[in-house]
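Dear colleague,

Following up on Tuesday's group meeting, I ran the structure prediction for the two-component complex that the binding team flagged. I've pasted the input sequences exactly as they went in, so you can double-check that nothing got truncated or mislabelled along the way. The structure tokens for the whole assembly follow below. Feel free to forward this to whoever is handling the docking comparison.

Inputs:
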Amino acid sequence: MTSAPAAPPRVIETCLYAQDLDAVEGFYGGALGLEMIQSVADRHRFFRADGGMVFLFNPLTTPIPAPPEAKIHVPPHGAHGPGHVCFSSEGPGIEGWEARLAEHGVEIEARVTWPNGARSIYVRDPAGNSVEFAEPKIWGI
Amino acid sequence: MTSAPAAPPRVIETCLYAQDLDAVEGFYGGALGLEMIQSVADRHRFFRADGGMVFLFNPLTTPIPAPPEAKIHVPPHGAHGPGHVCFSSEGPGIEGWEARLAEHGVEIEARVTWPNGARSIYVRDPAGNSVEFAEPKIWGI
């Protein structure tokens, strides 16, 4: 028997990758309206979502280790190719998000109704990541 | 002026990629103790975390579109190379997670204390993704 967590842990950092960080800054900060809390040149943009963070990293720079004199050494990472994230549509709802995305010129790539009745819409961020908005009942949340 | 969401949206699906899904199933389901709620052969393993889902996708199969007769068509995605996720350490705490990970033979790659005093530990999942456990005060959560 191993020590069991009393409850499953909560994700507090969700990461996606983009080589053009200025472009994704406009998408996540503008079209999605997330507050940007940290911007480091060619390395990353950090945004605050509800209850956790959404990080956009440039995979060309995140694999480079910090210089030896740096105070903090974070293990390297960096992925290439389109990732995926899903946001809850609660609040504005699917229609509210469709309206807001249209105002920002973001095209809906797909609309899905799942077997349990939950609806999703899918768009692409400027880096090609697949960004979904779903009714949270999709996972019984 | 565009229609503004009343509050920032919440992430309900955080995705990572792994070609060996059985190996990551043991890590997320075993060492991390997450409940697996869906398993589709060579395509994906879905796990339930607190307040949202953690999805492991095989990037060799997710880019393949569903056959034309499929009822649901989800936009393709699929990333290669190490991604990153961070879980809150609340509950067991950093020491509790260190103990549990050690019992499962998972080596700590790095320990970091951030300028605001929050502590993080980093491990690798079997696919090489960087998995962090952090005290949630790291982001004022």
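The radius of gyration of chain A is 17 Å.

Cheers,
M.
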